[in-house]
Design brief:
Length: about 270
Amino acid sequence: MSILPQSPRVLALANQKGGVGKTTTAINLGTALAAIGERVLVIDLDPQGNASTGLGIDRRDRDLSTYDVMTGECSLAETILDTDVPRLWVAPSTMDLLGVELEIAARPDRAHRLRNAISTLAQSRDETIPDFSYVLIDCPPSLNLLTINALSASHSILVPLQCEFFALEGLSQLLSTVEQVKAALNPELSIHGIVLTMFDSRNNLSSQVVADVRETMGDAVYETVIPRNVRVSEAPSYGKPALLYDLKCTGSQAYLRLASEIIQRERTLRGVAA
Ligand SMILES: Nc1ncnc2c1ncn2[C@@H]1O[C@H](COP(=O)(O)OP(=O)(O)O)[C@@H](O)[C@H]1O
Ligand SMILES: [Mg+2]
C-alpha cells in the first residue's frame, strides 16, 4: 500500500548547496504551475523564509508557520496563506525553524512529521482548504532533519543545479541521501529531474557545464534550462514571483516551459497517456 497520498503530488526542491536556485524555482515553478491551472501549495521549510518573502508574505503575518507544524503546535492547514497568484498558496517559515531539529530529535516520528502533516491535509474534508494538485517543498541548504522530512514526504525530488564550475560537486552525496531515505523511510521517492539554473549564454563555461551535466546525468536533466536573468533576481524584493513582475522576461518564460515539462513527466511517471 502507498504510504503517500496519490494527490497532491509532492515534490521536494533540494540540494545541500546554497544559492543554486531552490527558492527561486519553488516560487516561479509554483507560479507557473498555478498559471497553467494547477492548485499549488509551496511549503517553506527553510528558516531563511525567502520563499515566503518572495511570495509577498510579510514576516509579521507569519503567526503560524512550518515551525509550528514540525513541532506539532498546529496543523499544516492552519498555516496556509493566500498569495497574489491565483491558485497558489504558501505555508510560511520563520527563523524558529533553526531550532526545530533539537526539539524533535528525541521523537520517534522525527523524520515523518512533515509527511504526517501533508497526509492529514490531503485527508481533510474541510472545504476552506484547497484541493491541491501539487505541493512544492523549498528545502534548506543542508542535508539536515528538515530536508530528510521533506524527502520522506515527497513522491520525488527536483534538484536545481547552478551552471557553474562545481555544479556536480556534492550531487553524489545528495543522491546517496536519496537512496538512504528510499531504503529507510520512503520507498516511493524518485528523482523527478535536475534543472540547470542561472545559465549565462555569454559565458562558454555555462554551455560546458550543461553539456557535462547532460552527459553524466542523461535523461534526468530537464530540457528546459533556466537562464540567468536580472528580472528573476529583482522580483523577490517586490514580494512578487518573476512571472508577476515581468511575465515576458526570459526567466519567466523558462519557468513556464519547465512547468509544462514537469506535468508531462508526471504523466509519464504515472503511466497516463499524454
Ligand atoms: N535565473 C536566475 N537569474 C538571476 N538570478 C537568479 C536566478 N535564479 C536565482 N537567482 C539568484 O541567485 C540567488 C540564489 O538563489 P536562490 O533561489 O535563493 O537559491 P537557494 O534557494 O538554492 O539558496 C538569489 O539571489 C536569486 O535571486
Ligand atoms: Mg533557498
